[in-house]
Amino acid sequence: MFGFGSKKEKQPEKPWTFQILTTEYLLEGQMTPDEEFFSNCQVDDPADYMEKLTRVQIQPTGLLVPPATTLANWHITFGKTIVALIPRDEDSLTAAREAYEEYTYSRRAQVYIGPYLIEGMLLNEDEQFMDFEDTSGYVPLADAEITHLHPNAQLRAHRAPWMLVNGDLAHGFCLL
Questions:
Q1: Residue pLDDT, tens place only, 24-35
Q2: Handedness of CA 135, 136, 140, 146 (dihedral sign)
Q3: CB 143 within 8 A of CB 134
Q4: Domain residues for 126?
Q5: How far apart are CA 71 and CA 145, in angstroms?
Q6: Does some domain include residue 2?
Q7: Smallest Cα–Cα separation from 105: which of 137, 75, 141, 135?
């Protein structure tokens, strides 16, 4: 009543589990929840943005043969090698969907980025223009499947319920 007594301490937020697909690796780790994370993906030049992951597992996706590695932390810049950002828990998925809530129109698409074919539902703000034209940065896809196109690659049929793909790296796409 008068500010005396026990105060409930704010519990730290549960970390988000996240995957980052690069042109050569699939990283999985945890990050501190950040409501601005997805907004930063919508800026004109996300290459200036850096994120820190903890408890990171690194897996090659193609033909590289480094040992399976787990690191305490990993700093990554949203530059020229990030292909996709994949939320892997309910909290991060909810935050992602809320940040892109205006993307209500969808169309089945195939997107070629780096060595990958990504198939899924391309989400867009405008029913008439289903493309990457107005999006410098990351574009949402739902019900996606990622396949490395080299026949002996390690990444095959990697599924994600929702993801952001780097539209700046797209070689092209096809609406189905």
A1: 999 999 998 887
A2: positive
A3: no
A4: 16-175
A5: 26
A6: no
A7: 141
In whole angstroms, how far apart are CA 67 and each of 57, 63, 73, 118, 174?
11, 12, 17, 26, 36
Residue with tokens 């319920």: 161
Pairing of strands 170-175, 105-113: antiparallel
Q: What's the whole-model pTM score?
A: 0.86
The model's pLDDT over 39-94, given as tens digits with 9 standing for 90+, comes to 667 655 555 667 788 999 999 999 888 776 889 998 887 777 889 999 999 999 99
- Number of helical H runs and strand E runs in the chain: 2, 10
**Inside any domain, residue 11:** no
Rg of the Cα trace of the chain?
Answer: 18
CA distance 62 to 155: 7
For residue 5, being part of any structural domain is answered with no
CA distance linking residue 100 with residue 91, whole number of Å: 15
- Number of structural domains, the chain? 1
Tokens of 5: 């007594």
